[in-house]
Design brief:
Elements (H helix, E strand, L loop, with lengths): L18 E9 H11 L4 H10 L4 H5 L7 E2 L18 E10 L2 H13 L7 E9 H15 L7 H13 L5 H5 L4 E4 L8 E3 L2 E4 L1 H15 L6 E3 L2 E3 L1 H10 L2 H4 L7 H14 L3 H5 L16 H11 L26 E9 L1 H15 L1
Parallel strand pairs: 5-7
Antiparallel strand pairs: 1-2, 1-3, 3-10, 4-10, 6-7, 8-9
Bound molecules: zinc ion (ZN).
Amino acid sequence: MASNPKREIDLSGFPSGTVTEYTTLVCLACIFDIFTKQLGLAPRTAFSEIKRHTPTIEELTSRTTMRPYFDSEEKHPHCPYCESGKRWLARFDTYCIEGRKTTDAPRRALVKKLPQSGEQFLFVDKKSDSRVVFFEWLDTLRLNLDLNDETWLLQATCNYLERRDPATNWQEIFGEVRTVRRSSRISQGWERGGARLFLPPTIYAEALLIQYLVSRSHAHGGLTSEGRLTLMELIRKLRYFGYLEQIGITEREPGEVFEKLIDYLASTHDWSRVTTASSPAHEKGVSAGKGSDRVSRSKKAAKKSSKKSSKSRKSTPAPPEPDEITTEPVKLHYLIDRRDFLEKVKSVYASYAA
Ligand SMILES: [Zn+2]
């Protein structure tokens, strides 16, 4: 849909992958019909009620919609329930911001900039957990990828690395990368040789896992940089890379291993702190790009996580101990843009009253 550029909300202050955008259309003809016919309100009362109306978070963010809400990719959408056109259709834009250390400041700055009057914007906070957030992120990733174009494997890896390490400008790095390889010469960070990007076995393992999760289907497994893999084959590879051992997964049963893997990937959401733990002298994989201050801070925080004492130092971002692989609570901050809705309700009411 065409959008008014003045209306655009500037999300550039947020680390990549921390904000999910949803657009839902609502048919005012349908909603008016519901308020007058089903709820029996007089037209005037109906309009003043409709003006106050805000869909639930579920209605705004669900991939499946119900009357009077619908999703449409069309330039000139029509209501799928009553065929009403443009004049009757209003749009809600919803932004879901993951509550994390790195999103607190940009979120406050954004809220400050938005108009506060007339309920043009609504703010809703919801408790969630790392697993739900992770699957939502995967879902969004899948929707944004074209699985018929094999460069999606690179794109998925890039998006995953952005989520894991927002301080590095991965888009720029991937601009020249054609293949991603596993390198056992490096244990942290990354290296690039021409069009090849080398990742340590553990990070490479996670990239495969993400690719698998994005493309998996029950019968044929998932597509990865290592070819199409069934869950069993994937787990065998991850074990061979030393990944399962590193993150403390000792289970043998594939289903249990898989569940632990998901919880691990989902719960280590502040991945940048883990990935930059390394000996700085040989660090090739820390860019001095836009987030260089953040890099140095996280590096300092990360220091060296020697295996034996990682538990005693609270601030040491070592990979979780086996018993720490659990779902973590996450706060989600929803921002609902009601401006288009308010305008449309007003204009529809004006034409009614006339
Ligand atoms: Zn309709």
